[in-house]
Please model this.
Amino acid sequence: MKTKPHFAFLDEGSKKEIRRTILKAVAIPGYQVPFASREMPIARGWGTGGLQITLSLIGKEDVLKVIDQGADESVNAVSIKKLVQSTTGVEITEQTADASLIQSRHRIPEVPLTYKQILVLQVPMPEPLRVYEAKEYKTKMLHAEQEYSGAWLMLFEQIMKYGKTSTDADHPVYVNDRYVMAPSPIPRFDNPKMNQSEALILLGAGREKKIYAIPPFTDVTSLAFEDYPFAKEDFTNKHCYLCGADDVFLDELIDEHSGETIYQCNDTSYCMERLNSNQKEEVGSVDA
Amino acid sequence: MHEQPLLSVQHLNKQFGSGCSKCTQLENRGLTKNYCPNCGTIYACQDISLELYSGEILGVVGESGSGKSSLMKCLYFDSDVTSGEAYIDDKELKGKNLFALSAQRKRYIRNHKYGMVYQNPVHGLKMNFSSIGNIAEKLIAAGNRNVGEMEAIGKSLLEKVHIPIYRMKEEPQHFSGGMQQRVQIAKALSNNPPVLFLDEVTTGLDLSVQADVLDLIKNIQRELGISMLVVSHDLAVIRMLADRTIVMLNGKIIEQGLTDQILEDPAHAYTQQLVYSLL
Amino acid sequence: MGYVAVKGGTKAIEASIKRLKYERLKGQDSIHVETILATMRGMVDQVMSEASLYDPYLAALAIKQAEGSMEEAVFLLRAHRSTLPRLYYSQTMETENMFVERRISASFKDIPGGQLLGATYDYTHRLLDFQLIEETKSDIEQWLSEYEQEVNCSNPQEEVIYFPKVVDYLREEGLFETNPLENTPPDDITKKSLQFPASRSERLQVLTRGQTGAVTSLGYASLRGYGQVHPTVGEVRVGNLPIYVSPPTEEESEYEDDYYIGEVKLTEVESFVPVMKQNNRNKKELEFEIGYGICFGQNETKAIAMSILDQCLDHPEAPYPTHDEEFVLLHIDSVESTGFISHLKLPHYVTFQSKLDSVRGVKQEVEKDEN
Model:
């Protein structure tokens, strides 16, 4: 009985099919390309779409970074890393700059990505119009006809009700002036990083069986009315209590001792890097 | 008349079923009413040609099964035609058969050139969105991206159709039938469409409310000069609104002309019957 | 000395997996795969059916590994299925050729070939059998030898009985539409994702892989009132069916060249549903239609429920969710539904932070308005 798994788990036929899907996705930025989507050894909804992209692209030379909610050490990130490493043996890194392939759930790293890197985002609900229209058959037609008044209307209704838009993560974006796309549940803070990104961004929804892409240097704009501009999460006057960063996405924590609210970089490896370079500077200044 | 028609429809056919050897010839179909007793194919619209001129109200009257609603659905692209052509007097679309355009272009025309008021407001409104949101939807579809502007347009339209402004954030599902119909009219007008379709807009409303809605339509037409195509089974509605009238029976146009003329001197036996029943 | 990342996640996972193993072994006992295979027929069948992989031995292994959790066992087998290359499609199988173990019809008192009750729980009284606590190997051997003797004495008949399909009898009478044979290869939903409207072959594949509970529930909902299908079970048959594949090299092979690669046990159901139809002269007529259900192993409830849903989906005009193909086909898969439900256990603090920001913003806006 065959017991040893294939390199990168998937058989080569499946990988080829996924790569063909990716090529199509790159050719039509923001368009959701259907694919068969294999069952993976991790559960549907736990990153199988991203994982299938990663496994079909990865080669022995690649250096992989996996994050979940911004953290390299999050249990699900660790679990995915373990699976990829045990079936490929590739090098794993936590340094954003060192990685050639980055799989992430719900965050785009703080360190700007370069044209040598590919970012793979895990997507739970790829259809930005789903809240407005339940039927796939119909949303497909709406995309075909570029009929996006539904997506805009959601925002308009929020403004009427609350005086401002009340979207949280997964705020819809316009890609290349053609398709409205769900950017996956990244915070609004990360939406602008997609615009004119140097790195190729691939988005995979395993359960919903869709792959879509933002090729390098593509226009990506967040949906917003002229008089109600798009707004990122507001961290004014707040900074990371560890490294002091104030221009990053912050996690809100409660200090167990003082009971006060404190903030910390959500991107753990970025925070670590800053701490280390701060320390070097201090050490350097002492030497001098 | 030398004037260019705003909308011209030529040889529109709409059938349900594929037809058989006995009914495919237009001249001699041997139909029972509008369907072929041999193969069951229904000929809802047969060789319909009409012209709608700028600023006029054209009435289409007929009983149920006459094909008037099928005609309306085809013109608004809610259903596909079997054959035929339609042209609109518009810079971008000149000389292009509208029925042959892509779904995306058809959507563009609906959003920018047409307005539609359905008999049942459920088809024209999102019942669980605010009334102002419903109006904004049409404006958004026509390319508006400014909330303040859309709110202002929406308010003035709601005023025009006599919906109190303080109720603009309410959902039409809480409104009466007459109010829903008025919101629908406001929505249909919001993008300033050159062409407005009205399909049995007063059917199902109380008599007093009917008069209200008809008055409203007449006033709007006078004020804005929009061309309208009004479909109704009720000759009284047609009499009140339409400048010209087309009479349909079993999928065919049997008579057309100025409304006054048709009412005073109906030529076809069926029209005569209609007119006399009105008196 | 620089700062280093805490390896909290890695350690926690390792410990958790160890703990899981401990939970499996702490009773100081283990079950052989062979024992599961021999004694857990219903479970093995259900796992194979929901996993859409016919391999009783691996299904039993999955059950052992999953400590009897159905969703886990199905998941294991499905994931294994992804690693296997798919090289052939079998020849079309004709269930008329089934080696029938059980076959009943609710539509007729007697049917050609006869009713064959076979093995079923239907007429057992559901009372706990406390004697099973004491069951020994020698008890089993003794019972088996007695039973075999009994069967040999009472049934000396050697020939195999032929069981024609019940529906063929009614077809001859013109009560069912006769469809031409359609042997075009099915759309493979594991190679191409489901698109709507779905083809019949896609629909049947999704239904037969459906989670038993989900398929049963939706079939029940339709029967009870949220649907318009009230079938009579025309025929349920359970038995083995041989599978053949054609030699890969030859384009058009003769039947004699096909390879026999084994057999699968199947439950097949044909439900009869009266439907008002318009004939080609535009007159209304009452005719029967068939709802079709089939699944790996013996699982009659699922197969019957599937036959109801198949029929429902043939009539999308009915205003019930059980007649809506997207509603039914997109929500009955075990791996997909359990996966997405369980993903809610993953951390969501980034999205939550974003939500907090949005709610706070709205609150401020409201306060500004009020002041």
In short: The interface with chain B takes residues 141, 144-147, 149-150, 152-153, 156-157, 159-161, 225-228 of chain A (CB under 8 Å). The longest strand of chain A covers residues 63-68. Chain A has a mean pLDDT of 93.
